[in-house]
């Protein structure tokens, strides 16, 4: 009985990986074994960093809110505590945007919670 190999699927699999490796430097873009390892590692990084991105944005928003609150004589933690006490339910993303792009509105919020 002749040996059965599925070259069509094998080639398709390799083409898919090499297409994902497009733009990589050196042998990582065109040598199958190197490209496969590079793409696997890139996928691990992308999975991890989709979660890390959420953390970094949250910390950026906190920094911006803190800077805006300190301009009006209040620390970040006191500001957020007073927001909760006054039942003002604005999330950090919106507050950071107001502090950055609309300081008058942010100042009105700070004055309301003081």
TrEMBL record:
Keyword RNA-binding: yes
GO cellular-component term (any): ribosome
CDD domains in alphabetical order: Ribosomal_L20
Keyword Ribonucleoprotein annotated: yes
Keywords: Ribonucleoprotein, Ribosomal protein, RNA-binding, rRNA-binding
HAMAP family tied to this protein: Ribosomal_bL20
Family per similarity comment: Belongs to the bacterial ribosomal protein bL20 family.
The protein's name: Large ribosomal subunit protein bL20
Native source species: Psychroserpens ponticola
UniProt lineage: Bacteria, Pseudomonadati, Bacteroidota, Flavobacteriia, Flavobacteriales
């Amino acid at each position: 009985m002749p040996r059965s190999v599925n070259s069509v699927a094998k080639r398709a699999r390799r083409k898919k990986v090499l297409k994902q490796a497009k733009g990589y430097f050196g042998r990582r873009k065109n040598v199958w074994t190197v490209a496969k390892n590079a793409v696997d590692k890139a996928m691990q990084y992308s999975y991890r960093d989709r979660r890390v991105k959420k953390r970094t944005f949250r910390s950026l928003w906190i920094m911006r809110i803190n800077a805006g609150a300190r301009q009006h004589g209040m620390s970040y933690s006191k500001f957020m505590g007073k927001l909760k006490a006054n039942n003002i339910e604005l999330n950090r993303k919106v507050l950071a945007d107001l502090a950055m792009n609309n300081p008058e509105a942010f100042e009105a919020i700070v004055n309301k919670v003081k």
